[in-house]
Protein: 1-deoxy-D-xylulose 5-phosphate reductoisomerase
Organism: Candidatus Kinetoplastidibacterium crithidiae TCC036E
Amino acid sequence: MREVRRVFIFGSTGSIGEKSLEVISINKDRFEVFGLSANSQIERLAKQAINFNVKVVVVPNKQARERFYKAMPICYNVPEVLIGENSLMNVASSGLYDIAIIATSGVAGLYSALEAAKSGKRILLANKELLVIAGQLFMDAVSLNKTEIIPIDSENNSIFQCLHRNSYLDNTKNEFANNYINKIILTDSGGPFRSMSVDQLEDVTPLHIYKYHNWQIGQKISVDSATMINKGFEIIETFWLFSMPIESIDILIQPQSIVHSMIEYSDGSVIANLSKPNMEIPISYALSFPDILENNVGFLDLSKVCSLDFFKPDLERFQCLNLSFEALNAGPGYCIVLNAANEVAVEGFLSGRLKYTWIPRVIEASFEWYSSKLSKKLLSLDEIINLDLEARYFASNLGIGLS
């Protein structure tokens, strides 16, 4: 009889958290949801807790705890309800479960994610920002504690799959004999504006973005996908996860979202990962690795795929992608500023206070601001968070309608 593995989902009410629960729901003979956390959508969290009979939930404050209690049915065996970041950190380091799914977004929950990395668990990582702003710190903890980390964003999960289908990857270190590897190629659909001129981008509104995407994603990530900074974050993520030199990471536009990544080997051969664009595949692969789970996605019928197109991204149109490469080359502080300034600028765009074309300008101005500061070593998460807050404050007070 196969052992049932216990799972805690950090950020269970977001799209990745909910998709993870869908995968687990059809594999209840293999996985048990031990606990959940959420920062908002507390009523949805209560429904999840009921459906999966969880043992513990973590909410941000007392008000959220009261909302959770009110959402629970009378006479239901209510799970233990914990409050705040310290509780989340304690849960992260707990030995009561086996797999941590880090499905939070932004800088929320970084301390608990770092605690999970120190615990030696299997971590399913969906939070790109974690590696963007604290890559060295996080990967040092992973290496020191022999933690098993598997990315569940589509492209980096595909890289993981391609590498694990051969004998070149060390399962405990995510390191491979890179003399065999010439290049890692990340793909991107190119979003709604891949054919627009730079001048046409001046008139872009949030509505132009929402009506187009191949994945089911939220507002902020929709904008990040349109500017391709989301792909820039994946470049930084790839750098840390797979110890690849910057010059060996490349990007191709693949509009059909069928080819999710490719590995180019030193003999000229290329291994690619293809599937339907559905997050259930990377999540199920990461949960069950090295086994393969069946899922509800269905098979890819290549006879019905009219074409697979590839072309280089236009870095003038996708300035945020170019800025991501610049940040990675310039050092960890610039990656922190990249993420912080982008979040501020995207919020300004979504609220109608900032033009779409100003998103990269806010990032560039923030880089210039940071270049004039004394260099910081950024040896702790507190120092990283402090720089993140300083960069957000600067970006919010540029005098362009963001304050």
